[in-house]
DNA sequence: TTGTACGCGTTATCAT
DNA sequence: ATGATAACGCGTACAA
């Protein structure tokens, strides 16, 4: 049989580059098959249903036309968007970029991408943003804004929205999460300070509306007891937010209470930064007068004066694992929800030393 | 079977709670009109074509059913994805989060969202990622990775891809950009140092493959001349990357050349951070021995020792303006490409002082 | 002012 | 092994 494919014609075609991107039909036509067949030939999962020779013809045509499947049409048909939503408080908090990159790494290799939204810790905003994410047909949600009491999340779970919590968890809901081992981290910090000779150690706790806040302060109280240190309630101050400003406020409160603490375990690095601010104001020197330990090991802490001792959390891995879990739960919806506790480590710098004599 | 559904809540209308999200047809049916009419009633632009009373009925039905238009179907029809691509080198570089938030702010209020990709400055990766973005039908691209010689961008422009450059520009291509006023910023820095009494001022230049690198070092040379300072080529060292590591390398080079500079204008904050590292190693004190000025005012610079004097760039605004420009050029494709130069300001902290006597 | 009919590009389902 | 047909949910000429 003689296929008429005069080479001149091809040259002519090439001269007139398609403005419109090639569609599946174009490919099918070029390969002399029906669109359905072309679809199968191009789809690895259905490829086996079609003649090997045909597959080659189709693929070749696709190649030549620079065919790119239209993911929107595909989504409409399959109601899968290859997209997941990522809900964080604020991208400019240095804690999150490494998490995001970890997530995107994993997503990318699975052909997924992430839609990121920032809630600024505003529940109204969070609700609206999640709604918009859902209307964009995200296949699942990775959420970093979980509160201990979070009706919205509960509601989403009832609607069978696939969710993985990151960095924070919810205790009573059975919802998969990926977090750092906060309790161990705080234990390490307290033990380190105790070994240095501190006996009056304070804790600037994070908001008790979050699991991280609660877990860390509970771990703090246990560690104090385990190390035989002074258990003075006045040594614990709660911050309303995980912010430098609130950290400073709590530090001032601590000082004004006259607790004579010689060391402070901050709920996180931002809170520790707040301590630094107060030290500067009040002419307190760290670590000579007061030692400080942070939590998270966010970037550039080694450039502070003094470089901040802190608990290192593998944020990139946290993100990667959360993404993997979400993809798994999309693939196998019935799978029992797992959760992960990633190991942390104490990072010694110069903000901790023996207490003043 | 017992679905746990709060009976009071839905008592009124929805006897059969939809599992499937409501579609336009559902709304139309509920309102007793045809889908077309419902579509028009819901679409602000076509709303005027329909009876006010009907509009109310439709809207009410939509409200009650919790109708959310399916953006995928809409995209397929209109071939608009309401999505733009954002191409940055690395989200963990603190420079970018504020830019991203600025972009998302504007996008959000226009019903758009951003797909973010990190190139890690790898051209291969960049090409692949942009391709994947395009296959996701993004309506435009905001690009922060532009190099002076960037064939890919040129190629995209020829394909009529809508692009706005941010933070960096390309001089010969006519492509809209939004950048800070680098030249003025450097001028401010040099003038400040000159006023302090410095005469031998060094410049640790950023990569000359980027417009920012080139513009800043050109501005530096001009400023040195304008202020009547010493024009010694040995006082300028180029960094291969905008990184702390390269900054440290360049600082060492400068020291080893024996240039006896009393101040350095770093290409950006990261490079300035590299200087701090070298100072620590070599027992040089800043600002007593050497003054340093950074560029960008990334977060937490005020916590360094010493707090870094730098040039503040309005990153959030940069992002917002770039997003606006992109949306504009999507709306009005024929509009002449604008570009924006946003004002910067010198932020005085403690890393600059008079030269040693 | 409202309704009809069709198509966006793809895939699922059935038939051949 | 391949083809025909319908449908995903929406928007829009065109008709009424």
TrEMBL record, chains A, B:
PANTHER family reported for this sequence: HTH-TYPE TRANSCRIPTIONAL REGULATOR GALS, LACI-RELATED TRANSCRIPTIONAL REPRESSOR
Organism of origin: Actinomadura alba
Pfam families tied to this protein: LacI, Peripla_BP_3
Keywords recorded for this protein, A-Z: DNA-binding, Transcription, Transcription regulation
Name of the featured protein: LacI family DNA-binding transcriptional regulator
Gene3D superfamilies: 3.40.50.2300, lambda repressor-like DNA-binding domains
MF annotations from Gene Ontology: DNA binding
SMART domains referenced in this protein's UniProt entry, alphabetically: HTH_LACI
């Amino acid at each position: 049989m003689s296929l008429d494919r005069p080479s001149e014609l091809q040259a002519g075609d090439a001269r007139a580059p398609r403005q419109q991107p090639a569609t599946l039909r174009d490919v099918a036509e070029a390969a002399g098959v029906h669109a359905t067949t072309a679809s199968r030939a191009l789809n690895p999962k259905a490829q086996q249903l079609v003649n090997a020779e045909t597959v080659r013809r189709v693929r070749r045509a696709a190649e030549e036309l620079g065919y790119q499947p239209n993911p929107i049409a595909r989504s409409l048909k399959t109601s899968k968007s290859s997209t997941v939503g990522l809900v964080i408080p604020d991208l400019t908090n240095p804690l999150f970029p490494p998490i995001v990159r970890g997530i995107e790494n994993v997503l990318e290799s699975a052909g997924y991408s992430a839609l990121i939204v920032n809630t600024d810790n505003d529940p109204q905003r969070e609700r609206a943003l999640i709604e918009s994410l859902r209307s964009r047909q995200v296949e699942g949600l990775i959420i970093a804004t979980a509160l201990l009491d979070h009706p919205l999340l509960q509601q989403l779970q009832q609607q069978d929205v696939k969710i993985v919590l990151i960095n924070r968890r919810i205790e009573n809901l059975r919802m998969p999460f990926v977090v750092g081992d906060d309790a161990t981290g705080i234990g390490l910090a307290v033990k380190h300070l105790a070994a240095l000779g501190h006996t009056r150690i304070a804790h600037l706790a994070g908001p008790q509306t979050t699991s991280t806040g609660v877990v860390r302060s509970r771990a703090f109280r246990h560690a104090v007891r385990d190390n035989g240190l002074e258990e003075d309630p006045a040594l614990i101050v709660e911050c309303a937010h995980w912010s430098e400003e609130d950290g400073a406020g709590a530090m001032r409160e601590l000082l004004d209470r006259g607790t004579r603490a010689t060391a402070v375990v901050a709920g996180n690095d931002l809170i520790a930064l707040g301590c630094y601010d107060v030290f500067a104001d009040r002419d307190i020197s760290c670590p000579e007068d007061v030692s400080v330990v942070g939590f998270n090991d966010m970037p550039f802490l080694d450039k502070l004066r003094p470089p901040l001792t802190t608990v290192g959390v593998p944020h990139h891995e946290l993100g990667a694992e959360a993404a993997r879990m979400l993809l798994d739960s999309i693939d196998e919806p019935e799978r029992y929800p797992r959760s992960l506790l990633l190991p942390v480590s104490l990072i010694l710098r110069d903000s901790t030393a023996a207490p003043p004599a």
